[in-house]
Amino acid sequence: MSAITVSGSFAREQLRAPLTVVLLVAVPAFFVLIFAGVLGEFAKALGGTLEARSATAISAGWAAAFLSGTLGFFQLGSSRGADRRLAAAGLGAARVALARIAAALLLAMTVAAVAFLTLWIRSGIGHPLHAAVGIAAFAAIYIGVGAVVGAFITGALEGSLLVVLVFSLDAFTGPQMTDNGGGIGAFMPTRRAADLLIAAGGGHGSPSADWLGVAAVAFSALALALIAFWLVARTREA
Amino acid sequence: MTTATLERPASEQRVDDQCPVVGHCVLRVEGLEKSFRHGLPLHRRRKSVLTGASLMVCSGELVGLVGENGSGKSTLMQIVVGLLARDGGEVEQLGRLGYCPQTPMLWEKLTVDEHFALFARAYGLDDEAREKAVADLVMELQFERYRAYRVEELSGGTRQKLNLALALMHEPQLLLLDEPYSGFDWETYLRFWEMSERRRDGGMGILIVSHFLTERERLDRVYELRDGEAVET
User: pLDDT tens digits, residue range A201-218?
Assistant: First the structure.
C-alpha cells in the first residue's frame, strides 16, 4: 500500500458523504449563477467598479475557495484523533500530513474544475487558461485557510464559522468592490488571484509577474496547510 | 526529561533486574508529571494530574492501572504513546507498541478493511502478514462479516472490537489498553480476557486500565493512581 493509497483513503472518506458530493456541483452553480449577481450589486452599492462578466468569473473562484476551505477544515476536524493514532502507530506525522495535503489538493482541484466548467458554460471566458489558474489558486489558498483554522479551533461550529468569516471578509473587500480599492482587502490572501480572475473575466490577460505573485501566495498557503496537518498529527516523543 | 523508544531484536533486549517477574522490562515510567491549563488567557488555572507517577511493565505481565475518574489513567497512557506531551519525568519503552484508546479513534466513513490496510502500512506489515493478522483477529473477536462495513454502520461494541484489533495486528511487545471492553457483551468480555491472558502467556507486556474489583484476580499486579502518583497495591 503506497502513500498515494493513504491519500486515496483520506479523499474517499470525504467523498463518501453524499451531501458533500452534491455540494461539489451545487455550490459552483449557485455562486456563478446567483452569487455573482449579488456580488456585482454589492460592489455597485459600495461604489466599486466590478463589471458583470468579472463578477461572474470571480464567483467561480469564490465557489472553489468556499468548498476548499470548508473541506480543508473538516479534513482536520473530523479525523484529528484517528490521524494522530495512525501517526503514532508508525506512519509518522510527516507522512500523514503529506497524505492529507494530497487528498485536500485532489478535492480542491476537482472543485476548481467544476467551478471552471460552470463558468465556461455560463458565460464563456476570454482567457480560459488564466481563469483556470486563478480559480485553482483560490482553491489552494483556501486549503491553507481551512487547515490553519482547523489546527487551532477544534469545535466544528466555531471553526466553520471562522472559515466563513474569513471568506466573507475576503469576498466583500476584494478588488473593484469599493470606490477606494484599498482597506483590509489589500491584505487578504486572494487579492492577487482575484486580480488575475477579474482580468480574465473581462477578456484581458495578465502579465507573468502577476502569475508569479499568485503562485507564491498559493504555494505559501499550501505550505501553511502542510504545517497545520503536521501539527495536528504529530506525536510528542522528545 | 528524556524518552527512549527503542526497537531492538529480542536477543539484544536486556533483562531488567527490577522486574518483579522474570522477564524484560518493556515499559518504565519514572516521575511522570503532567498538568493541564483551563480557562481564558487572563484567568488560566492549572490542574496537576500526574505529580511523579512511576510504574513498570515487564514482558509476560498483565498489569492493571486503576484510579478514580480524572485521576490521570488515560493521560498517562497518552503520554506513553506520544499523543500528549509531558511536563517532566522519563518514559522508556522497549519494542513494538500497541495502543487501544478509550474512545475509538477511527475514520467514520472508512471500512473495517480500509482501517486494517492503513494501520498495516503504519506498522510496516506486508500484504501477506496483514491478511494473516486480520483473518486471525476478526475470527478471534468474531466480526468477520463486518469487514466491508463502514465504521459509521457498526454498533458500539463492533467499533470497540475494531479499535482493539488495530492495536493487536502487529503483535506488539507492549500493549496499552484503555478500558478496551466498554460496549462488549458478556461473551466478548470473557473472550477479551482469554485473548489477553493468552498473549500475556506468550510474552506480551500488557498495561490495562481497569475499574472492576472482580478483574483484580486476573491481573499480575495493580497500580492505583492516587494524587498523581502510581502506588502498587
Answer: 777 777 777 788 889 999
- Please determine, looking at this structure, whether the domain spanning B1-94+212-233 carries the CATH number 2.60.120.200: no
- At residue A180, the pLDDT reads 63
Q: Please give the Cα distance from B47 to B55 (Å, whole number).
A: 22
| Domain assignments of chain B as residue spans, ordered by start | 1-94+212-233
Q: Model's pTM, two decimal places? A: 0.86
Residue A75, chain B, CB below 8 Å: the answer is no
Chain A residue with CA closest to B102: the answer is A81
B129 touches A at CB < 8 Å? no
Are B48 and B75 a contacting pair, CB within 8 Å?
A: no
Which chain B residue's Cα is nearest to A17?
Answer: B109
Would you kindly state where each structural domain of chain A is located, as residue ranges? 3-233
Residue reference for cell 510528542: A236
Instruction: Tell me if A16 and B150 make a contact (CB, 8 A cut-off).
Output: yes
Q: Tell me: the pLDDT tens digits for A37-89?
A: 777 777 777 777 667 777 788 888 999 999 999 999 988 887 888 999 999 99
User: Which residues are paired to B222 by β-bridges?
Assistant: B64
Q: Dihedral of the CA atoms A169, A172, A177, A179 (nearest 10)?
A: -60
Q: Which residues in chain B come in under a pLDDT of 70? A: 1-23, 212-213
Q: Which of residues 81-100 of A touch B (CB under 8 A)?
A: 81-82, 84-91
**DSSP states along A4-15:** HHHHHHHHHHHH
Cβ of B118 within 8 Å of Cβ of A88? The answer is no
Closest CB to A1 among B83, B120, B150? B120
